Amino acid sequence: MNMNSPLESEKTPFSFKAQKDLGKRGENVVFEFLRKQPETLEVLDTSEETKFQAYGIDGVWTFESKTTELLEAIFFDIKTDFNIHRTGKVFLEIESSVEGGKKGNLLTTKAQYFFYYDPWKGRLYQLPIYAVRRWYRLVGISMKHYPIPNEGYTTTGIFVPLSELREATPFTEYEIPTIKW
Q: At the topology level of CATH, where does 16-88+105-142+160-175 sit?
């Protein structure tokens, strides 16, 4: 085991199917939470829509703004992270070796927000992508980038303490249900 890595093992590839199944369970909890908010008009699950997948968008949340009383809609990407409770860090994908290498989700998504879901503690972290990208260009780019093996490709990214993102971005945190096993 590499003791400098925030991962238990950098050598064991993640199973894409297993990760997708776990991620889908997390997405369902987040969608249900958003639908139950009193200000919500509609939550659309776009995670299986090819057009939205190309833009890195899992859903659209339409709600009445508490401050303006006008309807707003945001595009979001959900990340179910099973290590936040243990590490206090989120993983930001910077590059993927899929199709010969390309920029990762942080740099390519057209979503407005990441929703990082901690299924163990029942916490949902809403991070504005424009602010996270700005932070990455100023600070995160100099952090150690970790290659994470998956079945057939590698994802490279950084592990960022939530406390650092909380200081650098307009960060919202919610208490939501945990995954029912």
A: Trna Endonuclease; Chain: A, domain 1 (3.40.1350)
